[in-house]
Amino acid sequence: MALVFEPQPIPTLAVAGSEDRIPVRRIFCIGRNYAAHAREMGKDPDRDPPFFFLKPADAVVEDGATVPYPPQTGNFHYEAELVAVIGTGGRDIPEERALDHVWGYAVGNDLTRRDLQLKAREQGRPWDLGKGFDQSAPIAPVHPVAKVGHPSKGSIRLTVNGEVKQDADLAELIWSVPEMISILSHSMALLPGDVIMTGTPAGVGPLVEGDVCVVSIDGLGDLTTTIGPRQ
Predict the structure, then answer these.
(1) Which residues lie closer than 8 Å to 16 by C-beta, 6 or more apart?
(2) Which residues contact 28 (CB under 8 A, 6 or more apart)?
(3) pLDDT of residue 222 exceeding 70
(4) Strand 194-197 relative to strand 80-86: parallel, antiparallel, unpaired?
(5) Which CATH architecture describes the domain 12-230?
(6) What confidence tens digit (pLDDT) does each residue in 98-154 have?
(7) What is the mean predicted confidence (pLDDT) over 25-38?
(8) Exposed/middle/buried for 180, CB within 10 Å: 0-12, 13-18, 19+?
(9) Where are the domains of the chain?
């Protein structure tokens, strides 16, 4: 058997303090996982069952990269997020064992074409075009659990051109990392290289060409993204 086309390169994430790379399989994202953000999006923050959406693996962007302002939007938003990377696969993972499956953590930014997302929401349609576009998942180098443990509290902050826009604590997550892993694994098998973006705090807002966006999480460092000219 021969491939009709040459396969695209496997998307990878950097590893902090190492030349090694992590192959990315899937990027799961959870919606409205901080109560204040749920309220600012006009939704009830009660602990209803969580919902997830996906970004393509090749949406990954390196720390320090310039991301072009994407097409078909006039309302391009930042969303600071803690990222968990699965290193050991599993299905039907119990919550109390879920953290055993995490290889490491990173700082992420769930870039969003908000106008497309909201229009899709109003029409009861999927969010894919609002969330899963090219270069929509900047993620900083991943820190191994062996070095940083499992962060469950600590500052998560985002600035645009030095001005603080989001400022919260990881302890404010509605659904914890172990809960998210367990819930996802009861729907489908998780495998090494699956990435989970764990939700954003309140304060989301627009980015424009030339903006420098920095996401910071205690113990995990910074993720810097510059917004380039419109595509």
Answers:
(1) 140, 141, 142, 143, 144, 147, 221
(2) 52, 53, 54, 184, 194, 195, 196, 197
(3) yes
(4) antiparallel
(5) Alpha-Beta Complex (3.90)
(6) 999 999 999 999 999 999 999 999 999 999 999 999 999 999 999 999 999 999 999
(7) 85
(8) buried
(9) 12-230
